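User: Hey, my collaborator sent me this sequence without any context and asked if I could get a structure. I don't really work with proteins. Can you help?
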Amino acid sequence: MVTIGKMEETHPINILIRVPNWIGDAVMCLPALIDMREYFPRSTLTILARPTIAAMLRGHSGIDEVLVYDHLGEHQGLMGFLKLVRIVQTKRFDCAVLFQNAFEAAMIAFLSGISSRIGYATDGRAWLLTQPVPCVNPVGLHHIHYYQQLVQRVTRVPFQDRTPHLAVSSQEQAACENRFPDVFQPPEMMVIGINPGSVYGSAKRWLPERFAEVGDQLVEALARASAGSLLVRCVIVGGPGEEAIGEDIAKRMRHSPVMLSGKTTIREVMGVLTRCAVLVTNDTGPMHLAHALGVPVVAIFGSTDPRTTGPSVQLRDIVQSPVRCSPCLLRACPIDHRCMVNVSVEQVFDRALVRLGNPPMVALNSPSRGTA
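Assistant: No problem. I've predicted the 3D structure and written it out in structure-token form, which is a compact way to encode the shape of the chain:
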């Protein structure tokens, strides 16, 4: 049996890593992946991920191989699940490290015959793990540190405060420029990103009319600051199912934005985000993507806790209005949505100007972000 905490660093090992299903969680898991990479420099690290996450992480420096868990396609249902198990079996992994806190993740590793199975003892799965790690999650522990803590418990690797990092290739960037010319041309244009959705639920969404007003005010203020010499445009991003939210905001704006909600792949939205001088966003996946790509973020928080799921462990990017019932972690507000209603346009606008550089013109002179 392979026990990671007692492994010699030079011993060859073939490790399966089950990463989380949500975009934001998968991004926050990246520092733990780098911890694994540094502790096992000669090992093969393979991630098992759903299609969107697999695409997001493909080519990442901490990963050698990607296995796709197509839960809505070929791996759907019992027969599809067993097909995935057989695929994992053929890889002959020595060890599985499960960052996803689901019973299913442990069952895949167990049925695949992986001799060492490591993960937090959650979701009633401790009996499926050879190294169940007690889930100690103090109030306010950031998810980045939560995932790193699992690696530390089984490797004794010293803690390093890391920032998630993602990149898009120059070829991907060129493809995005060709596909979305309104975002990339002319090259001297300043682009303001707006991400108004949230797959998790409406409780995390700021008001559409306020997103629209902030976008308009930024366009107008930046144009005035440059005496009309600077072209400024907003782009609205979002995933499938968020098209209506994006369209609603676009219709409210005085300055027509580029509407890309539901029109991009995960890699394309990453390319678009690298074009943005700042992203104004709810607490959702693209917020974490932007931060990992080095894009300045203004994140509006209400029902969730920025200490645990903020774009970083620092809170400089956060706008929130403290209310007694927050963070409630509910999908929908059962009362009056006061945590979001109390966040004003002025608060978000002012923070965006700060993140743009104050004076914001310096954002135009910053090096290209998130490209490799």
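In plain terms: The chain is about 35% helix and 15% strand. You can pass these tokens on to your collaborator as they are.
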